[in-house]
Amino acid sequence: MQYKQEIHDNFSPLPVKEVPLYSEEMCGLAALERLKETLYGDEDPSQVYYKENTIRIVQEDGFYSLQLYLPGVPKSDVQLSKTGDELNVRIGNHRRNLVLPQALAALQPAGAKMEEDYLKIKFAEAARV
Fold first, then answer.
1. Which residues, 6 or more positions from 83, have their beta carbon under 8 angstroms from its beta carbon?
2. Which long-range CB contacts under 8 A does 26-33 form with residues at least 24 apart?
3. Which of these, 25, 33, 36, 67, has the minimum number of CB atoms within 10 Å of its CB?
4. 89, 76 in Cβ contact below 8 A?
5. pTM surpassing 0.70?
6. Is 15 helix (H, G, I), strand (E, B) or coil?
7. 69-124, pLDDT tens digit by residue?
């Protein structure tokens, strides 16, 4: 039960579906039909269960900010680097390369903060040498 609650807490606000441990292996169409009924009942399984903008670009105070929705991730676990027009985001063993829009590709990251489950990465013009 401890881990069940932890899973719900860690994935919140995403809905978590639960399936009991069946006494037999899930083989064949009848078993899949039973699994479908357990998971979805009368729901449409193709529906969107959660809607949140996971990436936002905001312009404020003369700066651009790229905002990544990362609920439950502490800022200290996030590593950022920029290579050309890509922003490389690493959280533990997971890495994602985001191709930046032209407006941000020419700019450099100038700080980041975690606020309301969003990692807000501020972009500024590169220092001229």
1. none
2. none
3. 25
4. no
5. no
6. coil
7. 988 889 999 999 999 899 999 998 889 999 999 889 989 898 999 998 899 999 98
